């Protein structure tokens, strides 16, 4: 006994999503079969359809967009002197929703990961270097994540950019708001110590 | 700054799935945007399309199917004297994949849940009673889950069916294989004691 073909097909489609195993894919698919109205199913299909036809990567910053250039690159009110380099579009969104940064972005489209066949050519590093030549950038903030690949990617970009007139900075890592020292992992703790700020002059 | 409309639409479609919050829906959607080839997106759309056009509930047992009656109801080699009553199609699939049961099924399509507006009319209870009248059933195995709603639904079905010639049974609950007594929850433990089998005559 197996599920009908279309249900099996949807289960295997869901399994391609990150962190979705056989049981979860089955639950999602049966939920759609049993509980979704026609409108909700149409919404799924139409959204994927629209993504296929309208979404592309901004040729300037690499962000996902349906207009060219993207809204951020179009926005002349933003600080045109800073570029924050992030891994993925969702990182850009996270920074944007914090409303703490008003400069430009550059979305790498991933991190260096030689084992997965991701080298500098697979990321938008070439277009970043082009931007830095032609635009009025003064500072590049490396905001890749604090893990082996993110650190390696930041280090690689640093070697490419040092020697230029640009200020290169790395976003600060340390204990998060509400974080407890006793639960902090070793890497966070070492970064928190490394980046400590002096409160008194010595 | 927001995602393009189509991406937002896909995020909100994913949020309708059980256990999928804002962050997960965003991760799923961006994974599709960034990493899915045309074929994988088509698979998603086509599967939902096929579900809309070909899937229905078997008018006999309530299982999801694309043929009428479903494969199980069609299969004359199955034991036609037993019906196992389950909540959802996925429960039927779980029992089938264990290959421990060869009778018929009846899929309720949920459990009684007055607070959510689910009464007997929202489940396939009427068609179950019809089947029990007209078919050659001798035993009904109540296999709803071991939780408040599953137990209530089983109790409700028992009141409907007792007084008939049918044997009504409840699937056994107790400690699972590989389960440790020390980690068992109270309900499982109480069911395990209640359902204990005698090893010596007394």
How many E strands of chain A?
6
Helical element count of chain A? 8
Order of helix and strand elements from N to C terminus of chain A:
HHHEEHEHEHEHEH
Largest beta-sheet details of chain A: 4 strands, parallel
Q: Beta fraction of the residues of chain A?
A: 5-15%
- Strand neighbour order, sheet with most strands of chain A: 4-3-5-6
End-to-end CA span of chain A: 76 Å
The SS-based structural class of chain A is alpha/beta
**Helix content class of chain A:** 40-55%
Rg of chain A: 21 Å
Low-confidence stretches of chain A: none
Say what oligomer this is.
homodimer
Largest interface: A-B, 53 and 52 residues
Q: Calculate the mean pLDDT score of chain A and round it.
A: 90
Account of the protein in words:
- The structure is a homodimer of 202-residue chains.
- Helices cover 44% and strands 12% of the residues of chain A.
- Chain A has 202 residues and is α/β, with parallel strands linked by helices.
- In chain A, the strands form 2 sheets. Chain A has a 4-stranded parallel β-sheet with strand order 4-3-5-6.
- The termini of chain A are far apart.
- The interface between A and B is large, with 53 and 52 residues.
Secondary-structure map with pairings?
The structure is a homodimer of 202-residue chains.
Chain A lengths: L4 H10 L7 H14 L2 H17 L1 E2 L6 E2 L5 H4 L4 E8 L2 H10 L4 E5 L17 H10 L4 E4 L5 H14 L5 E4 L15 H9 L8
Helix pairs in contact in A: 1-2
